[in-house]
Amino acid sequence: MATSPCSSSGVSSSSSSVLGADAGLEIRTRSVEQTLVPLVSQITTLINHKDKPKRSDKTLQAIQRVGQAVNLAVGRFVTVGEAIANENHELKEEMSVACIEARRAGETIAHLTDVANLDHPESDSHITIFTDKTGVVKAARLLLSSVTKVLVLADRIVIKQIITSRNKVLATMEQLEKVSSFQEFVQMFSQFGNEMVEFAHLTGDRQNDLKDEKKKARMAASRAVLEKCTMMLLTASKTCLRHPDCESARINKDGVFHRMRLALEQVIEIVTDSRPNGENEIAPISIYSGIKEFKNKVEGLRENLYFLSKENLSTMLEVILEHTEDFTDSAYTSHEHREHILELSKQAKMELEQLVSVWMQAQNQKTKDLMEDLEVAILKTCQCMNDLKKEVHSAATSLAADLLKYHTDHMVLKALKITGVEGNLEAVAEYTCKLSEQKEQLVEMCRLLRHVSGTEPLEITCIHAEDTFKVTGPQIISAAETLALHPSSKIAKENLEVFCEAWESQLSDMSMLLREINDVFEGRRGEKHVYLSLPRPGKHNASLKALKPVKLDTEEQMKIAKLGLELHLLTSNVDSETEKWEDQENEIVQHGQGMSSMAYSMYLFTRGEGLLKTTQDLFHQAEIFASEGTKLASALHAFSDQVHDDDKPLLLLEAEKLISMCKQLQITAKASVQGKSATFTKVDACILKTRNVMTLLCQLLPLCCKLLRKNKAGNGCLKPAPPWREDRIQTGTNAYTPERRAETFGIKSLENHVTNMTFLESK
């Protein structure tokens, strides 16, 4: 649909009618729309003044000021546009023409509004806004058209940046797919991580800027797939490298790469507003949207008896009733719900027959009695459709609530992990069948929820959830089969953990989605949803009050999400580095793994997941993270005392840097704040400083590992008697006892949960 420069929601409709339109331009983003708002406002002021009979000196001066302001603003704007044109040769010609038009229109408006120093602004000797009443409208049309064209062309450059970033990610993925050594993979994955962060920044900004809520929801779904698949790609690839002849490991890895490519393709479809081979997107039709449209047509008969045919109305009802078969044919719909839906479907047909009969009579003879009969028929038909809507909603949401409650213990996933480690192929096969059954149930649940979701963004979320269960189920099965074939493989075990966590995370998301669907049905929220970047209230412990979740504006949401993704990728890099150490009980490794686990929990917080439920939990976690970093610095100092190598000064310098950064993080985490803005600033600062510490950790671990390897090679970079090792041996056995792990998370009340948790650490 092409939209005029002035016809978007943020631009005055009255000025749109005055200023005209350029039908060739479409405004798809809020940034373009909002840039035009003040310009339209100023031009509307000028146009409204040209017809006012009274023109005081003050009014004339105001008109001139506005005209000059418009011209100056356009001049600055055009200068930027010309600079963009010079940097992007493929758009230079179009951009230059638009800039010339805009500058000319701005100068014309300045000339027409130069009236403050004239004794008779209506004099024909000087053409002004008052004498040339159509001139200012023409100039305004040209100005808005050319400025919009410049903005839309500049927007193409943003799209080009996203496409270029996607191409870089794809190229690196192809290389990752072909690597044959672990060392080469680690190097390529580090590059891949940086490219994914850049892509996440660009697409996050784009998602935030999109006007179309449906496209925004599709973009969010694709970006969620890419984010979750990043960790899957890491563990699946490592498993394949460790077990190159394992068919199930290869299938598992191929599935991740395929899903990421599809998600990358969908992002490009959204930003370019195109589909492969020129296909048109077929929007899924839900029962809710069908009933809404049907009722609108029926109620429209009150105003116009001739605007549609009876065949049209009958077809619409047939389509709705065909969709109700998704419920009546489902093995998971209760007998009671099935009977009620069938009864209401039958009643809807009868009510429509009665309505059509009265409607046809009213077309031939518009008497008072017939019009009253028509009104009754309209009310009865609409009431029947409302009852049908309630019944399918009840059927879908009660099924979802029951399934989510039944699967909340994740018994099948736990059994797969246990039987996989035991190498019990027969038991793994048995539980994979049960997981397949569970997958079918959850896919059916998503399909039914889509019919009653109530808004297009929620419909898309249901479709995304359905796809996630369809894909993740087989991936868990292939990961479990790999572990069963290699029961002693720590990386195969970790890989299965990652896919199981993705399944559990999607189930958790379904609970939130179900609440949102119920909120829409009960009228507790409108089309626009206030998304929360921070989690909902939760008790920290008995002595603390539950904190209210902070509602962040869109810019804040995107900022914290970007930092979270960077933190996620850094934890993957740290895990890869710790895996290189032969001695996994080394104190440096232990502290590094602990910090990585805590950083991962802080990343989950940015998504509203995990054990950290309130901002207070996050701040407490940051304190403990900083404390763990200080302990690591002490271990590094002890290690450096044994080093006879040129790298010793660098090691000490990095250790001091670590101490300083951890102190700053502790100060930030302990600082008291009040109010929404200050709380977000503190959250942002804590995550930013945690990210900086993790970046330093990525540099420290390979340095220490290199020094240890030199010692093993007999280069004598370490002294023969290392007291720091004795200290480690004495404390290493209980380094990760339940008590220590609870302290690491910094939430004593969650000790039991943490004891049973398996972190995403490289084994």
UniProtKB/TrEMBL annotation:
GO MF annotation: an example: actin filament binding
GO cellular component terms, A-Z: cytoplasm
SUPFAM superfamilies for this protein: alpha-catenin/vinculin-like
Keywords: Cytoplasm
TM regions (residue ranges): none
Predominant location: cytoplasm
Subcellular location: Cytoplasm
Superkingdom field: Eukaryota
One GO term of the biological process aspect: Rho protein signal transduction
Gene3D superfamilies noted in UniProt: Alpha-catenin/vinculin-like
Family to which this protein belongs: Belongs to the vinculin/alpha-catenin family.
Name the UniProt record assigns to this protein: Alpha-catulin
Name of encoding gene: Ctnnal1
